[in-house]
Design brief:
about 35% helix, single chain, alpha+beta, globular, 5 strands
Length: about 110
């Protein structure tokens, strides 16, 4: 697998999910979407790790006129926002930092 420059990954993410720029700046694109972008696949949904995920998802949905659905249960509660044929899943950062959250994720 060849490594892509960070700028290229950011650009790919923005192309795949054009509304990402409207997510609060303390949100992080994580999980399968990142893996898919790295290997050159089109991601199915954007997984966003963020503090106060439910609140941020509601704000995001209001900004884009999207619909909100709550999925899962504690501690992995996910709030899904769908708009324009795309899915944005918001989840609270698990642990004390984004680094701790990322360490627990499965990238296989």
């Amino acid at each position: 697998m060849d490594a892509r420059p960070a700028g290229s990954l950011n650009e790919s993410a923005r192309r795949a999910f054009p509304l990402l720029e409207l997510v609060a700046s303390n949100g992080f694109l994580v999980g399968g979407a990142v893996r898919d972008l790295i290997v050159g696949r089109t991601p199915r949904d954007a997984d966003i790790a963020i503090a106060q995920a439910a609140t941020e998802a509601a704000r995001f949905a209001a900004r884009i006129n999207g619909s909100v659905v709550r999925l899962g249960s504690e501690p992995f509660d996910v709030v899904r926002v769908a708009a324009g044929g795309l899915v944005y899943d918001f989840a609270d950062i698990v642990g004390a930092s984004i680094e701790e959250d990322l360490a627990r994720r499965d990238f296989t």
